[in-house]
Amino acid sequence: MAERGLRSGLAQMLERLGHTASSKIWRLGFAARFFVYILLHSGTAFRRFQLTVREVYFAGVLSLIIILVSGLFVGMVLGLQGYDTLQRYGSSEALGILVALSLVRELGPVVAGLLFASRAGSAITAEIGLMKATEQIAAMEMMAVDPIARVVAPRFWAGVISMPLLAALFSAMGIFGGYLVGVQLIGVDEGAFWSQMQASVDVRDDILNGVIKSVVFGIAVTWIAVFEGYDAPPTAEGVSGATTRTVVTSSLAILALDFVLTALMFTGGNGK
Amino acid sequence: MKRTTIDIWVGAFVAAGFAGLLFLALKVGNLASFSTAQAYHVEAKFANIGGLKIRAPIKSAGVVVGRVSDVRFDNESYEAVVTFNIDAHYSFPRDTSAKILTSGLLGEQYVGLEAGGAAEMLKNGDRLRLTQSAVVLENLISQFLYNKAAEGKDGKDAK
Fold it and tell me: CB B103: neighbour CB atoms within 10 A?
């Protein structure tokens, strides 16, 4: 008797595990199909480009303040911390290299991506989730308007367009912040700051790779955001949960993708 | 919000984004200086190039006159063949010598050119005859230790 109880308990546990795993996999497959569906139905987003421009305003322009201010402060902190470490080795002139490389390669795309996920990604999820909860999406379907083409695709492309621009502005602002602290405040030689930076930052290896990273993060963040919004249970609770999941999942996705991309880009051999 | 206002803001945002990229490419990455339109190639063989990398600067009298464009291994003489890309503004005599030097104690390595006295100038595809390899710190240390050991032995013998 006791043995049978144990067995059924074990079976129940296995069943629960299997159910969790299969529903996760099902959701992942749904997300992948959703992604393909967005790509196939993004004709409207480009034909009626005004829709996308409107979303670029909400996702990109309204994120500018937080991106610019954080970029400036991250750059200033890099300037202070970098100088503190470099001057121990008597190479404080290399501050420009340190600030520029860490911003262009890593911090620009990653921090801009994290900020973009919490500033714009959460807004996209909440908006689409609420549209679903208030049955606006169902109403569109009734009017034979494809909600993915009309609502989701413009938001997706707006995110993909905005993200690299925001990351570039973040890096530029950060380098300016590093310059302010390093050169104007601490007094590192201005010529050495810029010339050492220019000598060691490569346009293709560093800047282009940074831009590629930010494009990938833009795709990942907006994909997660629109999917979570579209998939949210149509209740107040469901929308709030979906918004949280967007921020958490996209932050983790950015960090994991960043590792993969860095491993591919910067350890590719050829003696660099 | 009115459509034109949104358009203006988005336009400004996109323009600012591209300005940021341009700033990164020109001011930070120095795209302009790599497009050396006029340059000639010169090769040199080294027994050991140490940590010399592609795009390392080539300096003469401390002024950057070109960049290393290629490093490969010659499987017949077992030496490294380094290709220099020298700006066409600068011409050097044919008996110019090349050394691999280090900037600072632990800095990056670069090629130093010292002009010779020949009347003929280097042409595209020429090979430098006089080269001096990089100083490898490990070799230097082992040489030093070896000399010290030898000295100690001599001292004992003299006693």
Answer: 13
Query: How many other C-beta atoms can be found within 10 angstroms of the C-beta atom of residue A106?
Result: 16
Interface contact B51, partner A, CB < 8 A: no
Tell me the chain A residues in contact with residue B18 when contact means C-beta distances shorter than 8 Å.
165, 168
Sheet strand arrangement including B97-102: B126-128, B39-46, B79-87, B63-74, B57-60, B109-114, B97-102, B130-132
Q: Residue range B123-127: average pLDDT?
A: 86
In DSSP terms, B60 is beta-bridged to B63, B113
SS3 at position B101: strand
CA A201 – CA B57 distance, rounded (Å) = 14
Q: Is B21 on the interface with A (CB under 8 A)?
A: yes
Do the interacting molecules here have an ipTM over 0.90?
A: no
- What's the sign of the alpha-carbon dihedral A120, A122, A123, A124? positive
Instruction: Tell me the CA distances in angstroms from A32 to A96, A227, B122, one per residue in order.
Output: 42, 10, 60
Q: Which two tokens stand for residue B122?
A: 């280097």
Residue B18 structure tokens:
């591209």
Please check whether residue A230 is in contact with residue A267, taking contact to mean a CB–CB distance below 8 angstroms: no
The rounded percent of chain A whose pLDDT value lies above 70 is 97
- For residue A98, the chain B residue with the least C-alpha distance is B28
The pair of structure tokens assigned to A136 is 């606006």
By the CB < 8 Å criterion, does A163 face chain B?
no
In whole angstroms, what is the distance from residue A223 CA to residue A233 CA?
18
B104 dihedral zone (left: phi>0; alpha: psi -120 to 50; beta): left
Residue spans per domain, chain B: 1-35, 36-142
Give the integer Cα–Cα distance in Å for A180 and B30.
Answer: 20
Q: Are B13 and A165 in contact (CB under 8 A)?
A: yes
pTM of the predicted model, to two decimals?
0.74
- What is the C-alpha separation between A198 and B26, in angstroms, rounded? 9
Whether residue B54 and residue A202 make contact (CB cut-off 8 A), yes or no, is no
Q: In the 3-class helix/strand/coil scheme, how is A218-269 assigned residue by residue?
A: HHHHHHHHHHHHHHCCCCHHHHHHHHHHHHHHHHHHHHHHHHHHHHHHHCCC
d(CA A94, CA A212): 26
Per-residue pLDDT tens digits for B41-76: 899 998 888 878 777 888 888 888 888 888 889 899
